[in-house]
Amino acid sequence: MIIGCPKEMKAGETRVALTPEWTRTLVQDGHEVLIQKDAGANCGFHDADYIAAGAKIEETIADVYKKAEFVVKVKELQAGEYDLLQKDQIVMAWFHLAEDVDHDMLHAMLDHGTVGLGMELIKLPDGTRPTIKPMSEIAGSLAMLEAVKYGLVDRGGSGTLFRKLSGLPAPRVLIIGGGHAGVNAAEIALGLGLRVTIVENYWKRIAELRYILPGVEVIAWEDATVKEYMAV
Predict the structure, then answer these.
(1) Rounded CA separation 93/120 (Å)
(2) How far is 155 from 166, CA to CA, in rounded Å?
(3) Mean pLDDT of all residues in the chain?
(4) Within a domain: residue 127?
(5) Is-contact 175 186, C-beta < 8 A?
(6) Residue 51, SS3 per DSSP
(7) Per the database record, which ranges form the Alanine dehydrogenase/pyridine nucleotide transhydrogenase N-terminal domain (predicted)?
(8) Burial class (CB in 10 A: 0-12, 13-18, 19+), 29
(9) Which among 18, 48, 105, 188 has most CB atoms closer than 10 A?
(10) In this predicted structure, what is the pLDDT of residue 125?
(11) What is the pTM of this model?
(12) Is 80 exceeded by the pLDDT of residue 205?
C-alpha cells in the first residue's frame, strides 16, 4: 500500500502523524511511504531522517494526496485539503465527528468518495483506546501545570503557590475523575508535594486508583462531599 503523510495545515498544529521509526517499520513490512517535505520539522524530524528510514519525500501536499492510497494525519481535514481527496482513498485522522460535526468536511469526503477512519475510535480487544491514552496523559499533565500558573495573583488566582514549602502545610488539589488525564495530573501534583484527592464515580476504578496511587486520597463521588472539598 502507498501510505502518505502530509504536513498539517491547521493553524498552530505542529505534530506529525508518522515518525521516522514508524516509517521504517512500514517500509520493512512492504509499504511505500510518502512524506511531505518538512512534515516533521516542528517535531525535530528532518527529511533526511525519513529518507534514511526508506520514505520518499514529496514537495507538496497535493503530491501526497495524488499518489497515496492511505493518508495518515493528525488533525481533521482543512478546507485546503478538500479538493485533494481521491475516490476510494482512505484518510485516517482525529475527526471527532461524534462530538462536533464539520459538515463541510463531511460532505467533501462524501462527494469525493473518500473513506475516513477516526483515529480516536481505534479500540483494542481489551477495550482500551491506544490513541486516546497518550493524548490524555499530555492533557492531564498540562492541566496541573496550568493550574499552578493560574493560581498566581497576576493570573487572577488567589496567590496560592502550588508547591510544598518547608514549615508550611501543603496545598490541597482536588481532581475530578480518575481516568488517564486525572492520573497524570495527580502524578504531577504529587511531584510538587501537594495533598491530592481524586473523586471517582466507579468503585472498580476507585480500587485501581488506590493501588496505583498510594499517596493519593481517592473518594467516591457524592455531591455534598465534593462541595465540601471545593469550599476548603
Answers:
(1) 8
(2) 25
(3) 94
(4) no
(5) yes
(6) helix
(7) 4-139
(8) exposed
(9) 18
(10) 94
(11) 0.80
(12) yes
Q: Assign residue 166 the CATH number of its domain.
A: 3.40.50.720
- Point out which residues pair with 32 in neighbouring strands: 2
d(CA 138, CA 157): 23
Residue 97 lies in a domain: yes
Domain of 45, in residue numbers:
2-121
Q: Please count the CA atoms within 13 angstroms of the CA of 193 that sit on its side-chain side.
A: 10
The three cell numbers of residue 193 are 508535594
Active site residue 112: no
Helix %, strand %, coil % for the chain, to 5? 40, 20, 40
Domain assignment present for 46:
yes
Q: 169 vs 126, 189, 195, CA distance in Å?
A: 42, 14, 9
Are 200 and 180 in contact by the 8 Å Cβ rule? The answer is no
What does the DSSP 8-state code read for residue 224?
Answer: H
46, 96, 103, 180: the active-site residue = 96
pLDDT at 99 over 80: no
The residue count of the chain comes to 232
Q: Is the distance from CB of 159 to CB of 167 less than 8 angstroms?
A: no
Per-residue model confidence (pLDDT) at position 127: 85
User: What pLDDT, on the 0 to 100 scale, is given for residue 200?
Assistant: 96
**C-alpha angle 198/200/201, rounded to 5°?**
165
Grid coordinates of 189: 501534583
Is the pLDDT score of 65 beyond 90?
yes
Task: Name the one residue in this structure whose C-alpha cell is 455531591.
Answer: 223
Could you tell me if residue 126 is inside a domain?
Answer: no
DSSP strand E in 66-222: where?
70-75, 90-94, 115-118, 172-176, 195-200, 217-220
